[in-house]
Amino acid sequence: MPPEVTNKGTGPPSSTDSALYGMILENIDRAVIAFNQAGRITLFNPAAEALMECSSRQMIDQHYQELFKGQETLLYLIKVALEEGRPITDDEGLYLHRSKAAPLPINAYAAPIFAHRGDQDGVVMIIRDLSRIKELEGTLRRADRLSMLGTLAAGLAHEIKNPLGGIKGAAQLLSRELTKKSSLQDYTHIMIKEVERINFIIEELMDLGNPRPPVIGDVDLTDILDNIILLQREAVHCQSIKFKLKLDPSIPPVQGDEDLLTRLFLNLIKNAREAIPHKGEVLIETRISSNYHMSSPGKRSSPMVDITIRDTGCGIAQEEMDRIFTPYFTTKSKGSGLGLAISQKIVEDHHGLLKIESSPEKGTSIIVSLPLHR
Ligand SMILES: Nc1ncnc2c1ncn2[C@@H]1O[C@H](COP(=O)(O)OP(=O)(O)OP(=O)(O)O)[C@@H](O)[C@H]1O
Ligand SMILES: [Mg+2]
User: Which range marks the domain in which residue 88 is found?
Assistant: First the structure.
């Protein structure tokens, strides 16, 4: 039985109310930080501990100017709530800067706390972590761009395929007309090979614009990843690239299209390998995600499995981060630039998420989260 709420906002809270309020603060996923009139912390809930990466014990009694040193907007919000006694919020491109971790996109709300006689007794600040929402927005933006480009490009690709067939046919005829030993045969071979290469790129592009629907079945991720690594080890046998696998054997099969998922992980692992110039490591890890549950309306939520591909390669510059999913964006002399665009599409078709973290010093991590059930 849930505890009965007896306080209607008139008198001081009863002990049942306090227990309920305490439980809510313990479990809520927003950081709740309360300050007294002197600006010192009186409450720091577990979500605040997780967000700020410090314990409540360390934080209690610290002054808000110390806590948010150098973070003008947050300082301003508390100051307004404290001195002017009015609620105030900010969700325009606000970031929480932390000493031990990367800045986090947030929105923040500060409001005065009024005691029962109506006197102000401090301020409460509520901070919401927006990183997950930002990730989803990024995925949607990329998907939009892809579908627009895909439709346009697929139409164009279709038109190119016909004359290309003509060029290849003519080159084959020419080759037949020439004697086997003719030095001109080299040219006809190049023509045929290059036409085939364009044809392959165009087929990939048409796939992107109008891919076949996934054929869903049970897919054993461990099997897929083991097989890919076997081939990749073969491909790099003369380079000093180490492949490490940390696969959780207890992960049940995911519901997906085996061919498409193989293509996805092959693209990502190939990218990781290609990012390492001489010597380095590619780590592939699978685990059940503790955080994410993908739910669509009317469907039960599903646990997710995270597949991380981490390399110690050259990393991706911040200014390139937004472009790498654009079809044909490549920094490689022999790349088509379609690998990530296709990968993104496959992940979407599996109702999953693709997250990328990279820095030129440390290398790149790509995390694919796939739902375990459909
Ligand atoms: N793990 C990675 N490390 C560093 N850069 C990467 C990584 N993965 C992708 N990139 C960058 O993103 C670009 C686009 O990748 P994508 O897989 O789409 O195309 P590509 O690898 O260049 O060509 P293709 O996949 O067709 O062989 C790459 O050229 C590279 O600059
Ligand atoms: Mg690639």
Answer: 15-129
Q: Residue 312 has which token pair?
A: 């110690």
Could you count the other beta carbons within 10 Å of the beta carbon of residue 57? 8
83 Cα distance to chain centroid? 40
Whether residue 59 sits in one domain with residue 150: no
Atom of ligand 1 nearest to the CA of 341: 18
Kindly report, residue by residue over 159-197, the tens digit of the pLDDT.
Answer: 888 888 889 999 999 999 998 888 888 899 999 999 988
Q: Residue of the nearest CA to atom 8 in ligand 1?
A: 271
Give 364's DSSP letter: E
pTM over 0.70: no
Name the residue type at position 157: A
Domain identity same for 241 and 314: yes
Give residue 38's pLDDT: 95
**Per-residue pLDDT tens over the stretch 117-152:** 888 999 999 999 988 788 777 777 777 776 676 667
Total domain count, the chain: 3
Cβ(324) – ligand 1 distance below 6 Å = yes
What is the C-alpha to C-alpha distance for residues 310 and 357, in angstroms, rounded to an integer?
9
Give CA angle at 315 (313, 321), nearest 5°. Answer: 150
